[in-house]
Amino acid sequence: MIDKALLLKTRELSDQLIALQTPIRILDAINWDKQTKEEFFRQKCQKNPLIDRAYYQQRDLGFVPSELRQAFSTLHRNIINQLGQLNPITQYMGKMCSEYKTVLNMLEYRGTAEFHDLSVELFGHPKDLFHAGEPSLSELANMLEQPLKSLLDANILPEDPKNIDASDAVRILSEQVNASMQGINVEVMLSDGIVSDAAAGANNIKLNQDVKFSQRELDILEVHEGWIHVGTTQNGLAQPYLTCLSKGTPSSTVTQEGLAVLTEIITLKSTPRRLSKLVNRIQAVTKVIDGAEFVDIYRDYVAQGLSKDDSYTLAQRVFRGSTATGLPFTKDIAYIKGFVLVYNLIRVAIQLGRIDQLPLLLVGKISIDDFRLISQLHDLGVIENPQFVPPHFKDLRGLATWLSFGRFIGNLSFEQLENDYKPLFL
């Protein structure tokens, strides 16, 4: 166990880290304004939006990057001096300081090629390999696309109608999360300042006031934004010493989104169209790396049957922070990349008989790369068990059975199975 005085010093330094990162809002700093969208449609969707470095520089970040970067360096030095260089607490908080400094560098390079390079450093690249000789993330997305396309083309699993106004959706989702997340007061509210349909805060879920929702979408938001994003934030805030677990770095974003997507799937809330959307995000990022421009990605989405508004929004996700002809912001690969990493971690935990450690994924906004360090800090009494645990992690028997059986089925040859069963459907 760690000395009590050292734990109190940890709390003090952790709170300082939270205060330093508070003004950093990556998406606010890189999203395009409504005027850019209006001008694109005035040009009949034929010309790329005029976005350059000057466009971003005129936007006030609310802080001076060089000064904030220096403050993180000073804090990192204080952590080392007060906790010790080899202390696992120092290792964890030191990594957070370094990653936030990279975020600041990325924001300074908005509208340049360096912005893309730094986003790759933080979130990864679609052509990265998990292991030598295995498919890249982009190739995995292409492999997943075909069965999804077959399901969607057959139109035997139609999407639920989007017939719930945003104001009614607030009421319905509030009732759902307050029933399933007892002990955590989650506020659901309307917002006109988000690009996506919904977004999670520390203790709230914001719904786009201009969007209609289906009940299925609200079910997904409950488990994705509520159980995972709000839940892990609140678990981090409840930590007695390492409160900075409530704040996510880009590397933890990958794990967070992976956990959220896994939760959608395990709870049977997700749909083929939802998964197809996540796959398309990886493909869009890959196409831009291979030379596609904004209008190309926009037209791709329109050709897939999406509305002009949705096509613009999805294309903008890829180019935010960059220019309409530049290299992409790679955050959108986090969903499937994170899913693969989290899924494999759980499989290995089952194989090793260490499934009891899996709730540690929920103690805050952690990265899988830090899982061993988190386990060590838990054993030392620095980190406490998560207060809110979703049902599928509270009773691990179902999760263990599902994944164990999945591994067994995965060893069977699908090609042979297809040959055996395909005649039954002809």
From TrEMBL:
<keyword id="KW-0378">Hydrolase</keyword>
<protein>
    <recommendedName>
        <fullName>Flavohemoglobin expression-modulating QEGLA motif protein</fullName>
    </recommendedName>
</protein>
<dbReference type="InterPro" id="IPR012656">
    <property type="entry name" value="CHP02421_QEGLA"/>
</dbReference>
<keyword id="KW-0645">Protease</keyword>
<dbReference type="Pfam" id="PF08014">
    <property type="entry name" value="MATCAP"/>
</dbReference>
<dbReference type="InterPro" id="IPR012548">
    <property type="entry name" value="MATCAP"/>
</dbReference>
<keyword id="KW-0482">Metalloprotease</keyword>
